[in-house]
Amino acid sequence: MIKRTASAKGRPEEERILVLQGGGALGAYQAGVYEALAAAGQLPHWVAGISIGAINAALIVGNPPERRVARLREFWDKVTSSFSQLELPSTPGVELRSALNDSNAMLGALFGLPGFFAPRFPAAPFRLPGSAGTLSFYDTAPLRKTLEQLVDFDLLNSQATRLSVGAVNVRSGNFAYFDTTEQRLDARHIMASGALPPGFPPVEIDGEWYWDGGLVSNTPLQYVLDQPEGDGRLVFQVDLFVAEGPIPTDLTKVAEREKDIRFSSRTRLNTTDVLARHSLAQAAGRLLAKLPAKFAGDPDAEALSAGSRQAPVTVVHLIHRRKHSETQSKDYEFSRLSMKEHWQSGRSDMNQTLNHPDWQSRPLPEGGVHVFDLTRSPSHEKVPS
Questions:
Q1: pTM (predicted TM-score)
Q2: Which helix (H) or strand (E) holds 168?
Q3: If 0-12 CB within 10 Å is exposed, 13-18 middle and 19+ buried, where does residue 131 land?
Q4: Paired strand residues for 314
Q5: Are strands 162-169 and 138-139 parallel, antiparallel or unpaired?
Q6: CA–CA separation, 18 vs 272, rounded Å?
Q7: DSSP, res 103
Q8: Cα–Cα distance measured from residue 253 to residue 276, given in angstroms and rounded to the nearest whole number
Q9: Contact present, 115 and 74 (Cβ < 8 Å)
């Protein structure tokens, strides 16, 4: 496991956790965030992901630090290689660029993506019930091959960096997390986290079948915050859909807005819940201090005492906020041009956050929940905790 020590400035080093949401093609934003974090020497001790976030997480944890960004780049170059011929030599207008994005998305849907997925022929509706390939439109065997080429699963399971990925049990409908602190993970666990139906088939693991974790929750943040705490946690929550947005003006914008609402993470809800729990725990601690000595050793008092010890949690939001040229196809539009833009946006947002005065001057965490969102507006408004 990565050892945590005090920083050069004397600040106790928190457990750094990178939390990666699902979002398909928008996942290149996460790669840019990681590149900036790594360049700043802020390597995570734990990476948790769902769907495309699980794939990026495996590429990070399953490679040594000096090779991680190159492996991320190799994956994203591979899956976007089909569309380089459709890039424009200069930046087009919004309407032309939107049309180009939708055309690229349609091509990917028709012909698949290299190293990721391929369409089934014949298609699922034309196959005999119960035969192979009846449960999805695409075959994800190319993704398995890519993961086995780019991820060192021995290193991934060494617990040098913790990895957690979320999926949904098709039979029970319950969330399941695969965690390297509890079991050995392989390509199936990563693929299960991203097996979004009906596009991708369910993945079988130990007699159970799994679909994309985003069917229940598109972020593993709640899982991370529910785990037993250490001395303090610093969570970089990377969201690929933004919850806030304008009222749609036509049906295409309705489709995009619906997708943003459906897949935007419950980050605010989760952090509010944790804040409430911390406040309750602190109140319990104050109450215990007022109790007469005769309550020492009382089982109920001891239970309250154990629950009142809450380590500080800092949550940093990195949110991919939509561009004017993006449409409802943004999560399956895998053009090289868009990938580069998403990657650069993630890198820029992370650098802006790390260099922001509010972040540079943040006090030592002493308890409670502290929330930062330093890229939400030109004024760099800090989100109140």
A1: 0.88
A2: strand 162-169
A3: exposed
A4: 234, 370
A5: unpaired
A6: 19
A7: H
A8: 36
A9: no
